[in-house]
């Protein structure tokens, strides 16, 4: 009930979507390989140095990696949201971008605190640019978004942010597929909240994307 209420509130505040029904939250796919079966999890086989991580009471290396990685993932969403006020976006998109900015800044602060309290490495600013996490935009996509204006910017923003959010859902799924991970109460609540919130925003953004060009997108 809490999840359904959040969707209704978000949709009402951000955009008048009347033609779509909310998709059911898909369960974690059993076909997704556990994070431990991949090279050091899901993001650390690419560019840049790997941050140190160690297990502790009630949490695993996969938990630490998830928090480190999600900080960088959220950081790119903030970069995208910061473009909205200066790129000719509608009021509806500006409200959505403001929500994303506020919520993800709060989550970054929580993740940094969680890591610091456990004496784990906190990613420095800019660390995300050296990583290739699920859903992350390429430098070329970021440049394409920055060059667009008006309705074209809105279309690209929504398309790319949906891609970005879907990547975060993959990261949550990989966390819970990792043996022993996601059992810490703070991690569990945080990861499930990220999953629910980003599914809700994907639903809203898909509706907004469908409304572009119909004259009802301002």
Q: Could you characterize the architecture of this molecule?
A:
This protein has 218 residues and is mainly alpha-helical. The chain has a domain at 62-211: Ferritin, core subunit, four-helix bundle (Ferritin, Up-down Bundle), CATH 1.20.1260.10. It contains 6 helices and no strands. The chain has helices at 2-14, 61-83, 91-117, 139-147, 150-177, 185-211. Helix 2 (61-83) runs antiparallel to helix 3 (91-117) and helix 5 (150-177) packs antiparallel against helix 6. The longest helix is centred in the C-terminal third of the chain and has 28 residues, at 150-177. It is elongated, with a radius of gyration of 18 Å. Mean pLDDT is 81; it is low at 1-9 and 15-47.
Could you list some keywords that capture this structure?
elongated; mainly alpha; 218 residues; Ferritin
List the helices and strands and how they pair.
Blueprint: H1 2-14, H2 61-83, H3 91-117, H4 139-147, H5 150-177, H6 185-211
Helix pairs in contact: 1-6, 2-3, 2-5, 4-5, 5-6
Going by helix content, strand content and strand pairing, the class is mainly alpha
Mind describing the biggest β-sheet?
A: none
Per DSSP, what share of the residues sits in E-state strands of 2 or more residues?
Answer: under 5%
Shape: elongated
What would you say the CATH architecture of the domain at 62-211 is? Up-down Bundle
Radius of gyration, whole Å = 18 Å
CATH superfamily placement of the domain at 62-211: Ferritin, core subunit, four-helix bundle
